[in-house]
Design goal:
about 950 residues, Arc Repressor Mutant, subunit A, Rossmann fold, five-stranded parallel β-sheet, three-stranded antiparallel β-sheet, 13 strands, globular
Amino acid sequence: MEFRILGALEVVADGNVLELGGPRQRAVLALLLLRANTAVPRAQLLDAVWGDDPPRTAIGSLQVYVHGLRQAVGAARIETIGTAYRLHVEEGELDVARFDDAVEQARRALASGDASSALDTLSAGLALWRGAPLADLAEHGEAEAAARELEERRIVAFELQNDLWLALGRTDLVLGGVERQIAANPYRERLRAQLILALYRAGRQSDALSAYQAMRSTWDDDLGIEPTPALKELERAVLQHDPSLAAPEPPQRKRHRPPAPATPLVGRRLEVAAVTALFQSEEARLVTLVGAGGTGKTRLAIAVAEALASERRDGAAFVDLSAVTDPDLLLPTLAQALGAKHDGGAALERMSEQLQDASLLVVLDNLEQILPGTQPLAGLLAASPGLWILATSRSPLHLSHERTYPVLPLPLPATNEPAELAANEAVTLFCARAQAVDPSFELDESTGADIAAVCRRLDGLPLAIELAAARSNVLPPGELLTRLDVEGDLLGTAPRDAPARQSTLGRTIQWSYDLLTAPEQAAFAKLGVFAGGCTVQAAERVCETSIDVLAALIDNSLVRRRRIGGVARLVMLETVRRYAADRLAEGDPDGVRQRHAEWLVELAEEAETKLLGGGDPAPLLDELEREHDNIRAALGWTVASTSGELGMRLAASLRPYWEVRGHLHEGRRWLQEAIAANEDAPRALRAKAVGVSGTLAFHSGDLTAAESFFSETLALFRELDDRDGIARGLSDLGTVAAATGDLERAGDLLGQSAEQFRELGEQKRLAIVLANLGHVAGQRADFETAARVTTEALEIQAALGDKQRQAVSLLNLGSFALRTDDPVEAERWYRECLTLAVELGYKEVIAYGLAAVIRLSLLAGEPRRAALLAGVADTVLAESGVELLTGERDAFEASKTETREELGDDAYAAAHAEGLVTPVHQALDGAGLLAR
């Protein structure tokens, strides 16, 4: 893990920047980092976050912030010591500690006479800076004071760097930055002396004396002081051309420079910093940028070379290998680019000899087509300690000590909010390239959403975005988006000076595809069937391929490995997947799609069986959630093909997933299409599918449709003489009757159902019916019976491990307690209910639970908490498609109205808006509504 405070506060784990919460929570982390491995008293943290007047709730809020940080960085990282907290940071994890070490090592190296080594070390330390320290926490006094102290350490390092450049004869580098440093720090003697000396050594005696006079005037006017004796002595030496001021002899070596890019680099700031840090702070000497075609590996490599060129005595060289297809030509091509001698078989020995004392970065661009010939690079690195190699390739080189850095597409905007679009790198790139062909092009309200959609459609691939933006002189973004879906070659051609392989996006993928073996090409095409990625096991089965073949596709950057929900998956960029799907269409697509659908049916039916048997629903539902895109693709194919019965089985078996995870409308739609396409399906399958349709209609609030579906299901089960199905049909119809207020009919139907389930010994179904009978008793205000029957249901559910139904029963028990004016007991039940519902991701129960605890918040005199939770509830309802039943909906709206009246319109709107964007878990945890 890496903690960063030399810039905006960041924590990085496994290459990912962690979510650290809001400004106050981040301020707590900043103070703990500034005092890493030291106990920080609570009073200091309160003062740092709220100043001299913390609110009454500050201590509780601080505990919430610490809890949130523990979730982000690991609970073991933050230790509670009495009323203090201590953050454990290992050696090398905190950027400022590494910076301080680099400065000290550079001082020692300079003292020993090794200015070149000192400069390399110091540059690595300065590269850790990403901007103003703790820039995102400037309003917090403690962070502001710390930032000032850190900036002082940085300017001291700049002064040391200037001394090193002067020692190495690089006055050009001193003059390139020292005046800017003086403008920010006009009273620093050392900077003034370095400017004067650098000007003198550059042959500019007059300018050096003018710099002295300007300094003297500024100090006299602002401070009323004279220059120090040392500065006066320096002026004398300049006037007299003192030999002691002479510059050292410049090195007689060729200095390499990277090529000037045709266009400015847009975004990639973090990537440039990360790759340079691999060379600087992690002492890597061979780094390979790995990524699919069009991700911008070459442009990133040039930017890194620009950043590192000044740190290598011999600069940075760029070697384009895109036209080299013979592995034996690697070394001769490299030697020619570096101006080194080479002679056939002795090329490695001759180059090693000539580069043994080099201080050079070499960029080797496009190595993928000559991977068998890269082995000599290991020998070259071993013989040349000062040589760094930055390679670009579709796949790793697999050489010793190689560090790979994945070059991913540009991040995409999560929303179409104007501020987010303006800051997004993919959108910025599109606009920059569009303005190159149409200077009047602008990002505004009329174009923003379409530009973002184009970038999403193109997976954030820089090459694809540039090619699309080049069409902006003839197509507005909206029409461009429409045509992208129907015209395969719409992106046209790249600039004339671009490599041939980049003339269209399709050709960049074709470039990688052509490098594959026949089995690899076949597996690549079949992987196009997976709309949302897959596990290795699924790929092996559906694509009828091997792990070795899949590994080759990963190495060639056509497939990526990602951990999603803690599970390793194989994924493709959508643009790459569409290309694979086109190749699949040329072969046997129906056979692959049939296996794809069969695999998902088995997955869904197995999960359904486990859930009915009392299995833990959370991991099973999570697994189905990961396959949601695949499920959609399979259902779409089955409905349109002759395999409709397979789709009917899939849609019906997904009932727990549709219901619990809030995909009610989507589930209904797929079931409707599957049932309509399969009039001749087996009666048992139709009964199941229609029954699931009724369940989803009920939870969507469409009671009329639900009763119609349940009535058909009951009739079908009676035709089949299926006693279990009949009992379920009676229960479902009873539930609808209860929801419509026909409590007498509801009690009769549910009673018949309970009797049949007792006879069948079907405990799980019995518990569901008992819970519904309890709900009916509650509607009749018979709360004693309601609690007794529901408690019996809860005991059965707990024994069976039926967490989904336990959540519902706990919700009902909370409702009964609230309606009998026992808010303490009600909150206890709701806390257990919401904890379980959040664990399951059970959107419907979460929505009902939130609606109830808003009322509890009002009773407890906490209207702001009620307003925030109302915002959270509105988001859950909108995202899940859940419709509260009439009585609960009326109570929910009444609670919101009362909350608004207590807070006032402005305060209510602010708290409600905060709730709309606050994650459910965070909001409930902050409100103390999750069991610990």
